[in-house]
Design a protein that fits this description.
Number of strands: 2
Distance between the termini: 136 Å
Shape: elongated
Structural class: mainly alpha
Mean pLDDT: 78
Radius of gyration: 41 Å
Order of helices and strands: HHHHHHEEHHHH
Largest sheet: 2 strands, antiparallel
Length: 276
């Protein structure tokens, strides 16, 4: 399957380049290039092969993302071939191979392909992790800690006598070492997508796959208390409102009775006849 994909990319790139060059390239107002000189032809074929290899490498290392680690040699080969094209000029021929392969054809296949490779490399931020063709020290620190955690997890998975709970307990320190080390440097724009994907996958597996995430009970209690206060606030409001209304009702009732008694006394007093 890998050979088929590689052949497909190579053939597609080479066929497109040949069509573009055959239909659009001219070296002067009176001359047309029908056949590329051997130097141009061989370099075009080599560039097509290296670009196809890089594309295949990126696709096969997309999950988990290990593009920077596994595809650095393929990237360097594409870069090298493009540099050779830029420097190429056949003095024994009327054809400027560099212009033919990069500037004259309307599709600019070589240039577009090279930009695709660069764009993919930039999106993966591989420069942040690499020192030449190997990982730099900070990236190595992440990978070593990740390997230690993987080794511990694999030991528990392969041993049916060990339970999931023992995995969490035995591998917890390795997990903490990895995440703490990553958090120490992550804000410095230090790591490429290989590292970021490793951390994201590890944290997801630790929490959801292995169920090793420890709940923060203090935070949960605080959240519960706040929620209870919010829910009880309307109840307390209406209860206090009810008490105040009851006190007002009792006060008005007391005043009405007092006023009625006073009125009755006044009426009975006015009924007396004073004889002088």
């Amino acid at each position: 399957m890998t050979k088929i994909v590689h052949f497909f990319y190579t053939y597609l790139f080479y066929f497109t380049a040949k069509l573009s060059l055959a239909s659009n390239v001219s070296i002067s107002s009176t001359a047309t290039i029908d056949v590329l000189p051997d130097g141009c032809q061989n370099l075009l074929q080599s560039f097509a092969n290296e670009t196809a290899k890089f594309t295949l490498c990126v696709v096969t290392n997309a999950r988990p993302i290990t593009v920077c680690e596994k595809c650095v040699n393929e990237f360097n080969q594409v870069f090298k071939r493009y540099e050779e094209i830029q420097k190429l000029h056949n003095n024994d021929s009327e054809v400027d191979c560099r212009a033919v392969l990069t500037n004259i054809d309307r599709l600019q296949v070589v240039y577009a392909s090279y930009n695709y490779v660069l764009d993919m490399w930039e999106k993966a931020s591989c420069k942040l992790c690499l020192n030449g063709t190997v990982f730099n020290d900070k990236t190595k620190g992440v990978m070593i800690r990740g390997d230690n955690l993987d080794e511990c997890i694999s030991k528990h998975i392969n041993n049916t006598k060990l339970s999931n709970s023992s995995l969490c307990a035995d591998c917890k320190q390795y997990y903490i070492n990895l995440t703490d080390y990553y958090n120490m440097y992550k804000n410095e724009n230090t790591f490429c997508m290989d590292v970021v994907d490793l951390i994201n996958t590890t944290q997801s597996d630790w929490s959801y796959k292995f169920k090793c995430h420890e709940s923060n009970y203090d935070s949960e209690w605080i959240l519960l208390v706040i929620s209870a206060i919010v829910l009880l606030t309307p109840v307390l409001f209406y209860f206090i409102n009810w008490l105040v209304s009851q006190e007002r009702s009792n006060l008005l009732l007391s005043q009405n009775r007092w006023h009625q008694g006073f009125t009755n006394n006044a009426a009975s007093t006015s009924g007396y006849v004073v004889i002088s």
